[in-house]
UniProtKB/TrEMBL annotation:
The keyword Transmembrane helix applies. It comes from Nocardia stercoris. The lineage of its organism: Bacteria, Bacillati, Actinomycetota, Actinomycetes, Mycobacteriales. This is Succinate dehydrogenase. GO terms for molecular function: metal ion binding. SUPFAM superfamilies: Fumarate reductase respiratory complex transmembrane subunits.
Length: 144
């Protein structure tokens, strides 16, 4: 018998040669769960954003009616607060997960990957916290 030569089928992972063979447990399902989250959050975001755009731009006079009073009236309802909050959180988590994948794919050095992911997490937290704060503390009675 000859020794396996690089570049031949001998150096392929066993899972490629026998797809039905049991796989070793990797210990973590994070990447699988992140992949599933992207699919489900993308569908939900599509529904939320199309609903948002339809209501804001097409119904009852369209964009001409959007002003401070319209936003104040909209955010006085817990339904619209939750709708907008869900859009904000899902968009941040969905986009952040996508950028995390891009960082993993293109950042060559571990230190670069660490700092880029750190900046990503910090910016995501800032946007989510600020957006959540604005949605729930919005006061339509501004005093000059």
């Amino acid at each position: 018998m000859t020794a396996p030569v690089l570049g031949t089928s001998y150096d392929r992972p066993a899972s490629l040669d026998a797809p039905g063979a049991p796989r070793r447990a990797s210990g973590s399902n994070f990447e699988k769960n992140a992949w599933l989250f992207m699919r489900f959050s993308g569908v939900l975001l599509l529904v939320l954003v199309i609903g948002h755009m339809t209501i804001m731009l097409m119904l009852d006079g369209g964009v001409k009616r959007i002003n401070f009073a319209f936003v104040a009236g909209r955010w006085s309802s817990p339904f619209w607060q939750i709708w907008d909050l869900t859009m904000l959180w899902l968009a941040q988590l969905h986009g952040g997960n996508g950028l995390r994948t891009i960082i993993d794919d293109y950042a060559r050095k571990d230190s670069t990957r660490f700092w880029l992911k750190s900046l990503l997490v910090i910016s995501m937290i800032l946007v989510v916290v600020t957006g959540t704060y604005v949605i729930f503390t919005f006061d339509p009675n501004i005093h000059a």
